[in-house]
Amino acid sequence: MATDVEVVQPGTVEINGCCKKGPGYASPLEAMAGPKEPLIYVTCIYTGTGRGKPDYLATVDVDPNSPSYSKVIHRLSMPYEGDELHHSGWNSCSSCYRDPSAARRYLVLPSLISGRIYAIDTQKDPRAPSLYKVVQPDDVIQKTGLAFPHTAHCLASGEILVSYLGDKDGNAEGSGFLLLDSDFNVKGRWEKPGHSPLFGYDFWYQPRHNTMISSSWGAPSAFTKGFNLQHVTDGLYGRHLHVYTWPGGELKQTLDLGNTGLLPLEVRFLHNPSEAFGYVGCALTSNMVRFFKNPDGSWGHEIAIAVKPVKVQNWILPEMPGLITDFLISLDDRFLYLANWLHGDIRQYNIEDPANPKLTSQVFVGGVFQKGNSVLAEAEDGSTYQVDVPEVQGHRLRGGPQMIQLSLDGKRLYATNSLFSTWDRQFYPELLEKGGHILQIDVDTEKGGLAINPRFFVDFGAEPDGPSLAHEMRYPGGDCTSDIWT
């Protein structure tokens, strides 16, 4: 018997009005064939800038055929001041692909400082999102004791998991994971009692290996005051990965990365859900550490990429780390991209041999020792130099590359330049004065290569309420750092 088949979207098939799949895509490779991103949602921060305005979510037009290309077309201000919007996630994604009742509708915005979590409705009008719900910090603290939220990931169950960096007093010992139901009601802690991490930050789960791995930034009482090297010596920053049973929430192993793995931040498994390894970017020591499953079921780690520090003059230390603040992996697991916030470069590595990544391209888009700054870099022969960073549409590039996001097809890489308002003020004070920006990097996915797109520049220094800081980016249709496959 003939059956009418309507293709609803790539990866979603509806047969006679039934059997509709859920959000996202059946596989990472199918996601690569998804539609080109028309919009980007960007968390924009006034907290810490002294402007007395609430943070907001900006909608940016990234369609090159649109008259408003590379412009902010909508701003959704939060109802409170002092949030410090930071990372973001979705209420559901490709982990819910087999659930026809689920929809990638709400963008989840945890506020690092205030502890609020905003649920933003992007379905009613994708170009002009609206506020749906606010999870108040008092409710979270009363039921879980958690404060300082960071990463939000959707789960196949329809629930939402959020990592927290400490307790209400900023102690790292209070960190853990909050479980929200599908309507953003607080359910409690995810991890088993007595199985909380030493420090909190980012996490990624790989269900086929019944494993979740989380990383460790530092105690909120330390990093909220700015970076102080003494705090590292005092043990207020992390150097561990925490390995949990999934979805059981039992802390089964702690990997001590040692002095070569200080401040492990973003953590990613490969997108292929069958693979049992991934990477973590260790900011302070600027090493990419690969973690992997051993034959006996335990987990090990090794340095896969080392970004050498640069000798400098006129800076706070005689050597400057690259400070890897973000990285991601293309959906086909061929390329890894990382951002060195202080050095100012974005790098592309081929990771088809995952234990031996090969540098395929590098582009400088800012940095402390770019031409025009007072800081000088020293070469091995003792001579000094500065990096020549091009202007884009007449704008001198400010700060360094911080958060990055890759298009589904892997051909466009977007980069913002704000890390955290307190650290921005310390290392790149011009960002608070002149605002952040977004760049687009054109990517050669065949042979490897990175080049700044001269047509694209989003200037957050020209915002109606004054310069703001731009941080994380999300596409309405999902991206390389929010979707997890089961």
Structural description of this entry:
The protein is mostly beta strands and 486 residues long. The chain has one domain (28-474): YVTN repeat-like/Quinoprotein amine dehydrogenase (Methylamine Dehydrogenase, Chain H). The chain is 7% helix and 38% strand. It has helices at residues 28-32, 137-144, 220-223, 229-233, 421-427, 430-434, and strands at residues 5-9, 12-15, 39-45, 56-61, 72-77, 89-90, 106-110, 117-121, 130-135, 147-154, 160-166, 176-180, 186-189, 203-206, 211-214, 240-245, 251-256, 264-269, 277-282, 287-293, 299-306, 310-313, 319-320, 324-329, 335-340, 345-350, 358-364, 376-378, 384-385, 404-406, 412-415, 437-443, 450-459, 469-474. A hairpin with a 5-residue loop joins β30 (404-406) and β31 (412-415). Mean pLDDT is 94; it is low at 1-19.
Describe how the helices and strands are arranged.
Elements: E1 5-9, E2 12-15, H1 28-32, E3 39-45, E4 56-61, E5 72-77, E6 89-90, E7 106-110, E8 117-121, E9 130-135, H2 137-144, E10 147-154, E11 160-166, E12 176-180, E13 186-189, E14 203-206, E15 211-214, H3 220-223, H4 229-233, E16 240-245, E17 251-256, E18 264-269, E19 277-282, E20 287-293, E21 299-306, E22 310-313, E23 319-320, E24 324-329, E25 335-340, E26 345-350, E27 358-364, E28 376-378, E29 384-385, E30 404-406, E31 412-415, H5 421-427, H6 430-434, E32 437-443, E33 450-459, E34 469-474
Antiparallel strand pairs: 1-2, 3-4, 3-34, 4-5, 6-7, 7-8, 8-9, 10-11, 11-12, 12-13, 14-15, 15-16, 16-17, 18-19, 19-20, 20-21, 22-23, 22-28, 24-25, 25-26, 26-27, 28-29, 30-31, 31-32, 32-33
